[in-house]
Structure prediction request, 338 residues.
Amino acid sequence: MAGMNTDLLTLVRQALLFERLHTIPELSRTLSTSFPTIKKHLDILIEHGEVDEQDSDVSSGGRPAKRYRYRADHTHGLALYLELDAIGYRIFDAVGTLLTNGTVSVPRQQPHVPALVRLIHRLLAQDPRITFLSIGVAASVEDGKVFFAPDYPSLQQVDLKQTLESEFRLPVVIENDMNAAVVGFHEADQNRQQSLIYLYLGKNGPGSGILINGQLVRGSSHFAGEISVVPQYDKMTFGQAIAKRRATLDAQTIDAISRLTATFAATLNPRLLIFNGEELTEHDLEQIRFKTTEYIPEAHIPLLIRSNWETDYLNGLTRIGLQLLTEQPLSANRRSSS
Prediction:
């Protein structure tokens, strides 16, 4: 469309969706763009059914200011995550509201990609309004290609993004599970722009997601957070040290987590270290904090807290999926129901 700035269109969508900005003055000020230019791009989004224009309920006596909101019913997204023996999913609307969710079992001997493709086909048939996919995997990912998946040999070196985009002709984003979880926690947290780390012991092997000053850390080779390989003892990595843990954490597991906590504190100095609430108790956290003081001064130990990992994971995949939605060309935001 003549005069349209596609980068600005993405920024306007993101400001409406994520920053909850609703007026042209707010958008103009935040995006450092003129009123007429903002208005033109809002008109484009209205024309394509993405945005609604409404009169403000509050008036200073003059003409009511127009307010704009991203339409929840514009489209639907689908988030899925792969576990060793299951695939979980969530369908959500264009502002991230949950519509439906579920879990499908996958036999451990069965490759995950065919099972994933079958499930997506079934869900698309049930909801033809889905126009984008967000996929979480317990593996290292770069540009949609899985390159380190010790617990998922059938995914190793699979370009999952290309595979799914070729199959479904929809935009797809692939993300590491812990990156998604830390993003999901951060989105729900009131203290933005902070540094935090999400630590998962997990049936898939341990992993972590890292946010520094509100920015997701992937590392130069997208290997950041692969804590299973961190050396801790003469002959054991962190992954090996906790491999035989039980429901009640033993002394070796407590020590291994405490050493890793000290490592994080000395290198990244996060404000929060978040654990899966189903894996550790508050008593476990007390033991970890006490043991960590043997390695570093207590003043530098991050706050240790528990959270709902599955909720954070799915919230993160939803947020990442909506980010993908905002980056799409206008013509890519709808899918025929035929």
Summary: The domain at 6-70 is CATH 1.10.10.10 (Arc Repressor Mutant, subunit A). Residues 333-338 have pLDDT under 50 and may be disordered. The chain has three domains: 6-70, 76-180+312-328, 190-307. The chain is about 35% helix and 20% strand.
